[in-house]
Amino acid sequence: xxxxxxxxxxxxxxxxxxxxxxxxxxxxxxxxxxxxxxxxxxxxxxxxxxxxxxxxxxxxxxxxxxxxxxxxxxxxxxxxxxxxxxxxxxxxxxxxxxxxxxxxxxxxxxxxxxxxxxxxxxxxxxxxxxxxxxxxxxxxxxxxxxxxxxxxxxxxxxxxxxxxxxxxxxxxxxxxxxxxxxxxxxxxxxxxxxxxxxxxxxxxxxxxxxxxxxxxxxxxxxxxxxxxxxxxxxxxxxxxxxxxxxxxxxxxxxxxxxxxxxxxxxxxxxxxxxxxxxxxxxxxxxxxx
Length: 289
Fold this sequence. Notes:
The protein has helices at residues 4-10, 25-29, 40-43, 49-66, 87-107, 129-140, 172-181, 193-207, 222-228, 231-236, 254-263; strands at 72-76, 120-123, 145-149, 166-169, 183-188, 217-220, 249-251. It is of the alpha/beta class. It has one domain (48-263): Rossmann fold, CATH 3.40.50.450. The protein has a seven-stranded parallel sheet, with helices on both faces. Strand 5, helix 8 and strand 6 form a beta-alpha-beta unit. It starts with a helix and ends in a 26-residue tail after the last helix.
């Protein structure tokens, strides 16, 4: 009969069971535990305004660079204009659309031989004159930009700006900065407070030599602008110099806009055979950590 005492002594002792790790639900559910980049409460808090400002700059910048946008022709004008509105509205819409096509065909927006595009139509992205200019570029088969911003009433992206170049901003200041950064020319159709705000923003930069070059500026429809604003009153009162009135010119047709821009220094790119545009010319980018 085996010696039970020796057998028991020789048998290994069973290992003590390890306690199952506790799941710290309260800690993991706390806001503090969220990754900062995924925490909307953190990102949208007041102290992160500077971070959000930087993000709005960088997102637009990367999308524009991905499409090779080197320079733009900025088109401002009312969102309230429509192709079936009153006679003046119909004319403004038609001429803005025609200009969008002319500028896209002649300005270099479709020429991607060197990977860069010049004089790409850029608008506020909404309806009215903005839609018309984007639509003209679309008619030509060229890309165009829509710098959208949230507004209480009419704002929403029109269907003609290039989807990859249809951007949305929260900050007016950053939107204006992107309008100015690549502007090779400015065309302003009749509009309201917002159009005037955007016009005088760029006129002030032009007046004070804060732009990289002498930006050609054309106001469309002489009669509208001359009835709206008497610039000579500002000269007579000593508020602006006589030469400041020469910072802009007037035009009454889409062709006249283009010829005036050329006369004022816009580079005219010879017509090239139309190339099939890539739907998304973004180069592969290695994702960083």
